[in-house]
Amino acid sequence: MNEIASDSDLSAELSRCFSPAKLNGLTLKNRLIKAGTFENMTPAGIPGELLQNFHGKLADGGIGMTTLGYCAVENNGRINENMQFMNEGIRPQLTALMDNLHQRGTKVSGQMGHCGGFSKNKKLSRRRPMGPNFGLNALGVANGMFFCDAMKISDIDNMVQAYYDAAVFMKSVGFDAVEIHFGHGYGLCQFISPKTNKRKDEYGGSLNNRMRLSMRVLDAVRRAVGDEYPIIGKISLTEGVKGGLHYDDAIEIGKMLDKGGIDGIITSGGTSTMNPMIMFRGDNILQPMLKAEKNQIMKIILRLAGPSMFHDYPYKEIYFLEHAKRVREAVQCNMIYVGGASTNDSFATLMREGFDFIQLGRSLLSNWDLPNQASQNPSYKSSCTHCNECVATIESPNGIHCTRL
Ligand SMILES: Cc1cc2nc3c(=O)[nH]c(=O)nc-3n(C[C@H](O)[C@H](O)[C@H](O)COP(=O)(O)O)c2cc1C
Ligand code: SF4
Predict the structure, then answer these.
(1) If DSSP codes are grouped into helix, strand and coil, which group holds residue 71?
(2) Domain ranges of the chain
(3) Per-residue model confidence (pLDDT) at position 300
(4) Is there an atom of ligand 1 within 6 Å of 270 CB?
(5) Is residue 276 in contact with ligand 1, taking CB distance under 6 Å?
(6) Is 186 a catalytic residue?
(7) Which of 4, 21, 161, 381 has its CA 20 to 30 A from that of 80?
(8) pTM of the full structure
(9) Span 144-162, mean pLDDT?
């Protein structure tokens, strides 16, 4: 493995970035973490060689911790049948994967996801996906799953239990950390957002009520993994839609999670369901998505809904900095930056601004060995052009990949 450039070559901020750091009871060899990017490398929900090669390359490239994107906490939490869900049937494969990645010198986190009422999973154990309210399930239309049902209190209790069980399982197979997904319009976010949560009971209304499920999940996951084990969480700084979550809400959400004992907050933005482009600023993904979509009904839906869903947000480096800093100032826990960090200048800025870790998505897809390269070259820049074509590879049979390599 490459050596880190000597301290005299790197600024104090970069030396901090490339030095070991603690996340609760876990020590990472540097402060760079692979962002959760659903890999689509688990055909029929089974993690195998493809997934191992993907994360193995990242491990060899020097990442402090890699993240298995979207590990559904239960079958009914999957968006489609090619997502893995945490269950005993895949214990041997996951254990082997963890052993391999640990031997290659990286730590591994798993992103705990639940789709709520947004799914096209034909293997659901119930008639429809479930969210806070009865409503349209736009993603499922082509599969004849037009609607989602409202969760009863017993369904909410079952969902909390599913997070608990998944966390016990993930720790036992060797994950070093878990990342709870509170953002991007998925299950927990559907409850947090006033746009999608219209409930009249104690899970709807005020922010406290809309956060009730998320706080129960955090508490359950903590009970499952113990005090020393790192739990991080990804939130949306804004949903970018009228009537949805906005930047000021993110500060309150951050404070609640901090008080609830989370070890680190990742400040992303946007929703996969309503306004995804906020999440990955750069070239508009509508055309690549249309090109990649095989289902004719979904193609028509994309053509009709696309222009009002995929807005233009031109790329700029560290595009969430201003609003992520406001959360930084409000919480005590670790802050994990994500969003357009692709140069050593940006890493140094983030360290200077008080962020503890940095998550990288596209810049790692285009430069597997970014950590090794950047730790040697103070003026390092990733070659990612933020064309966003990788986003449209999310259902590719070979899994996600940079189309420019
Ligand atoms: C191909 C692809 C798949 C993604 N899948 C997920 C996902 O499963 N969960 C998630 O929270 N974010 C997902 N994201 C968003 C990234 O985690 C990250 O927030 C975003 O790409 C911005 O960071 P970047 O500028 O470093 O790429 C995905 C991004 C890409 C490019
Ligand atoms: S396809 Fe490659 S260059 Fe384009 S945004 Fe994705 S990682 Fe970057």
Answers:
(1) strand
(2) 12-393
(3) 87
(4) no
(5) no
(6) yes
(7) 161
(8) 0.96
(9) 96
